[in-house]
Amino acid sequence: MAIERYNPKQAESRWQRRWEEERIYETDNESPRPKYYVLEMFPYPSGRIHMGHVRNYALGDVVARYKRARGFNVLHPMGWDAFGMPAENAAIQNNIHPRDWTYANIDAMRKQLKSMGLSLDWSREFATCDVDYYKQQQALFLDFLAAGLIYRRNSKVNWDPVDMTVLANEQVIDGRGWRSGAVVEQRELTQWFFRISDFAEDLDASLDTLDGWPDKVRTMQRNWIGKSRGIEIPFSLVEPQDRIDTVHCFSTRPDTMHGASFIAISPDHPLSLALEAKNADLAAFNAECRRIGTSEEALEKAEKRGFDTGLKVRHPTEDRDLPVWVGNFVLMSYGTGAVFGCPAHDQRDLDFARKYDLPVRNAFYLIGDETPVLNEALVPAKSENVVYVDHFAGLTETTGQDAIDRTISWFEDKNLGSGITRYRLRDWGLSRQRYWGAPIPVIHCDDCGAVPVPARDLPVELPADVTLGKPGNPLDHHPTWKHVDCPACGKPARRETDTMDTFVDSSWYFARFTAPWHDAPTDSAVASAWLPVDQYIGGIEHAILHLLYSRFFTRAMRQTGHIDLKEPFKGLFTQGMVVHETYQAERNGKNEWIAPADVVIEEKDGQRLARHAETGEPLLIGSIEKMSKSKKNVVDPDDIIEGYGADTARFFMLSDSPPDRDVIWSEAGVEGAHRFVQRIWRLIGEASENLKAAEARTGSEGRALEVSRASHKTVKAVGEDIEKLAFNKAVARLYELVNTLAAPLSDVASEKADEDLTGACKQAAGHLVQLFAPMMPHFAEECWNLLGNAGMVATTPWPEHDPALVIDDQIIMPVQINGKKRGDLTIDRNADQSAVEQAALSLDFVQSALGGKPPRKLIVVPRRIVNVVI
């Protein structure tokens, strides 16, 4: 029978209402089924979802729906990472309270996400700016503080003198505040810190246990933790200064000591501070260095500059002196704040030496090549052997850890240094001078010092009446909020006016989702039962800080009794970005970005051309780049859902490329996915009346058996693909199954199929719907009804394949003629050698090559290959 086209707009809203009414995605913590926790990194409520969100949440939703169908008790929650500077900026720009701006955005984005048909447990929803959430975060703070995991000390920070606030390293651009444009200063402020460095060794070693994480992410974490085995070597000053007679240098390459030509100290090294008090030029140089920023990344990008102090130190193993420089590339917070420079074997040191005309001496050479270093440092690959000179002469090997360990032992044996293990990881400063964040629950008393807010007085709520346009910390200049009595002595005191870094909010939210109604940060037993998250999904941009901080928090919460595990995420998947072509129009001598919605693409003489949809002007087709508002290559998910339906958008995101790679958004690709949806609808719909009347069964012979073989093989393969997150491969198998079913279903529709084939088609069509249900859930429910099935496919178990039907009775063997492949032979798997030889010789291309003559030799490798020698 003829059937109308599938209308996603009507179907999707109808099924979304029914799922919500029947609460089928709400998770019961008491369920006896095995648990499975799938979580996508929760979004910041900017007000609009983008195509990256569509991809991210579609990936997680497939996993959640599949695992439910496989009998798991699935936890798939949603929340909002809602504190932070963007809300304060929007409040200032739009004269609106950050709370109102944030919750309005949450309402808008929730509606958009619900339109995607995600199987989320919305009953567990929270935002990190909810008072109840940050109350529990404050309780965690107090527990961490009591356990010695938090402390307060003076720290060097980036200070914006106009906005009068601390800036994160990422907010310092070319030495200026990202918002005010003022030259950033380095200041000493009293800040709160997490003792994450105490866990450095465990955080590093435990990466070996995370075999469900991508190797690249584990490598990024290792590099950030920065474990290094090195040595601390004392260099004696030739002329002591202000009772400073020694400079201790930390080095991971003591084997290059013969090549040392200078030492460099940090602008904040005690020796530099002593010298700048007497030297105005050095003081000016140090002040300029302090404006660069406090991060290693900022120092790495900055031009390497130095200041010659005029002092010298004795070389520890040779009869010569080394000049002492202050270097803008040396961090006081790493090692000892002093390094020795070996220009021959470190490119940074070589560039510095050439700039300031310092000596370059080789500590080793490549075997067979004693060419002195000129403009490129000699840093051998691990596979290259070297020969050392001077005091390490005779040590011939790769410049790997073994050589370093042997030279450390050499220094230690001569009492010239001490081997030591250091980490690049520094304690986490959590203080932020802004309003829209979780208040730090501490009260400062002149008599009692820093006093924790009693647990009974939590939460410490943000004041509703706040002035944001005034420079500085809004909480600090609030007229009343900060004034409070000391809970210890009762005297007038002051609240801590700093709020917590927003990374704190996202470092434990996955634990809160397990029991968000509990009047404590966690229900320990419930959280420990659900965690770790079985599958965590998010962007590679969060591979370092968010994941590292979450790993620290899990350990800290274990130490304070909130959970009983160390690692928060068992499996981690980092999806690729959504990218799109860019388009530009030449206007008034400048190129202006044009949005894809305003572009028409045409093919002419085999070439793709673009023109403006309204003006008709020709447009330049640019490179494919990450979707961004600045280049206007953004596609609005609402437009796609309105035009094609959520299922089409989801299906395209899953089908176009492997999920760990970028997906190129194209109108043609979306239209192709939509055509596939309509094709399935037509094939099932036209055969639906006859399928409803049939009993689903496995075909017994002929075409019916082939249909069953195809569907059971697809059931097995798609399940395996989803388990491996190979969604694009699963989609490809669905296309193959639909192609296989097209003719049999048409025969069913026209009543040309017998009972055996009709029953096999009904079973296969049911399998097909169940297989694409995690990807296109609304469409699957409609097709499930068409087949006459009761209930919802969303609550139906995953189909089981028959092992006997997935074994291929035939194999394909490549056939070579004189060693070159000319074709394939399809033959029964159990055919003997004689049958294979006869079948191969009967092939047309073999007959043609033989020209009526017998082969000189016929070689058969059973079930592998046939080679005909002429």
What is the helix fraction of residues, given as a range?
A: 25-40%
Total count of helical runs of at least 4 residues: 25
What's the gyration radius in Å? 34 Å
- Percentage beta strand: 15-25%
- Report the mean per-residue pLDDT as an integer: 91
Low-confidence segments, given as residue ranges, are: none
Q: Cα distance, first to last residue? A: 57 Å
Structural class: alpha+beta
Count of DSSP strands: 36
Shape: globular
Main beta-sheet annotation: 6 strands, mixed
Description:
- With 870 residues, the chain is an alpha+beta fold.
- The strands form 10 sheets. Strands 27, 28, 29, 30, 31 and 32 form a 6-stranded mixed sheet that branches. Strands 2-1-25-26 form a 4-stranded parallel sheet, covered by helices on one side.
- A hairpin with a 4-residue loop joins strand 3 (150-160) and strand 4 (165-167).
- Helix 2 packs across helix 18, helix 8 crosses helix 9 (280-290) and helix 20 packs antiparallel against helix 21 (727-749).
- The radius of gyration is 34 Å and the shape is globular.
- The chain starts with 7 loop residues before the first helix and ends with a strand.
